């Protein structure tokens, strides 16, 4: 009898270990492949659309070097960050479920609060940017059909607000996905879409070059002329740096992505593999889109190269490209919003543990619904949509987000956490060159922020809120 009882207990423990991870949560099933899909979904977003414009501001030499440098720096810091998922040991230590948890474990409470302000402020900003970008792409579909029917000289102007509302309604539904772990199918579809519209943009660029020849380009970008001053070129160059920084922004969701991985092989090894694969693939597409887009349009490259005037033929291919952008950003919005959703909901449950509206779910038509989650996430989508309607400025807004994101979240915190966890001695050679890298990136972020802020101020002066038009 005693032996039977012992066997029963042992079997029970075995089943528990099969269903749950070492932290008591349901066993994670993610692999480096699913993590790569998440990374590509987060990285290849609206930033790719502005790269041709960035090359027009920077020129062939500076544009290519800038893309390569941002790629290397982002990959390096992301690899450092993968070792901070567990603390103090990167393989056997306690799990950090979020980026902020990793900062708190390694750098303390003050840095944790500063990180929260930076991370969630940027995540909110990016979701606003995605709302604007999606509306522009939806409007581009309608415009391309109008041009096809009425000729390229037709006005075919479209109000963007209606499309922002449509996007918001879809996001309200998608936002009810309870957590990041349920997003893998959405991320896979979104990653496929990002590759698709990048390939379409590349194909259209090649077709335009073949049919019309290369646009007017130069080694240093748009030349200084009487109607384009040196000061204006400087501001645009700064803004372009912000756009490139934004194109590589994803570190602030890396820990959340890593938290979806199964524990064997070790999460940091899988995540390093996913990071290298995801950023390398993204860089190849970025370089192709930037180089070929600039070659096709020259110094007249538009802010969003898939909605440029020269791409209204073949109209059906333009439509497919913009549909891919819309589908991709529907998923990318959720990948970036889920950490913010989860943070607010976790804090609310801690503060009001007895409130059933906050803590309990109920079943409606077979679906689990939480009233607080429904109200909070719906309100968030509505507020971000209204802000997007007020400030629908693609390039400058993207540049400002990139500038605000890049240094604190992609450089400073990863480097400082790694130094703390690896116990790198202060003023050692490694410590010094890491601090030099951080300082250099801070300077780049500051000048990018200045340029983008100046561009936003200029745009706001001549714009009426809620009157965005494509």
From TrEMBL:
Superkingdom, taxonomy of origin: Eukaryota
GO annotations of cellular component type: membrane
Limits of the Amino acid transporter transmembrane domain: 28-457
InterPro entries: AA_transpt_TM
Record has Endoplasmic reticulum as a keyword: no
One of the GO BP terms on file: amino acid transport
Protein name per its UniProtKB record: Amino acid transporter transmembrane domain-containing protein
Organism expressing this protein natively: Mikania micrantha (bitter vine)
């Amino acid at each position: 009898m005693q032996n039977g009882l012992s066997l029963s207990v042992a079997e029970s423990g075995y089943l528990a270990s099969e269903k749950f991870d070492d932290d008591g949560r349901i066993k994670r099933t993610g692999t480096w492949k699913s993590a790569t899909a998440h990374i590509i979904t987060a990285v290849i977003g609206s930033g790719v659309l502005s790269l041709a414009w960035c090359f027009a501001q920077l020129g062939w030499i500076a544009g290519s070097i800038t893309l390569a440098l941002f790629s290397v720096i982002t990959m390096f810091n992301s690899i450092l960050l993968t070792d901070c998922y567990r603390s103090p040991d990167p393989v056997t230590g306690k799990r950090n479920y979020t980026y902020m948890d990793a900062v708190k474990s390694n750098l303390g409470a003050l840095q944790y609060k500063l990180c929260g302000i930076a991370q969630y402020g940027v995540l909110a900003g990016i979701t606003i940017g995605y709302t604007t970008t999606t509306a522009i792409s939806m409007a581009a579909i309608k415009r391309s059909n109008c041009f096809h029917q009425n000729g390229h000289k037709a006005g075919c102007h479209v109000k963007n607000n209606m499309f922002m509302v449509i996007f918001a309604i879809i996001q309200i539904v998608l936002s009810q996905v309870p957590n990041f772990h349920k997003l893998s199918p959405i991320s896979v579809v979104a990653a496929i879409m990002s590759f698709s519209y990048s390939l379409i943009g590349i194909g259209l660029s090649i077709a335009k070059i073949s049919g019309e020849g290369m646009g007017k380009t130069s080694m240093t970008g748009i030349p200084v002329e009487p109607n384009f001053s040196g000061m204006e070129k400087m501001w645009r160059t700064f803004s372009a740096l912000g756009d490139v920084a934004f194109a590589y922004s994803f570190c602030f969701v890396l820990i959340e992505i890593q938290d979806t991985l199964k524990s064997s092989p070790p999460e940091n090894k899988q995540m390093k593999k996913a990071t290298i694969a995801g950023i390398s693939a993204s860089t190849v597409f970025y370089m192709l889109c930037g180089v070929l887009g600039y070659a096709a349009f020259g110094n007249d490259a538009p802010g969003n190269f898939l909605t440029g005037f020269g791409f209204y033929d073949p109209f059906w291919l333009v439509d497919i490209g913009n549909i891919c952008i819309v589908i991709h950003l529907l998923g990318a919005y959720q990948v970036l919003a889920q950490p913010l959703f989860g943070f607010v909901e976790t804090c609310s449950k801690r503060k009001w543990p007895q409130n059933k509206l906050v803590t309990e779910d109920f079943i409606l038509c077979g679906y689990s619904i939480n009233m607080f989650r429904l109200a909070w996430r719906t309100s968030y989508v509505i507020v971000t949509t209204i802000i997007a309607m007020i400030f629908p400025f693609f390039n400058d807004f993207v540049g400002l987000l990139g500038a605000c994101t890049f240094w604190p979240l992609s450089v400073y915190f990863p480097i400082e956490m790694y130094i703390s966890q690896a116990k790198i001695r202060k003023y050692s050679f490694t410590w010094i060159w890491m601090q030099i890298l951080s300082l250099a990136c801070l300077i780049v972020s500051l000048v990018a922020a200045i340029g983008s802020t100046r561009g936003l101020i200029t745009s706001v002066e001549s714009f009426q809120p809620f009157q965005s038009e494509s």
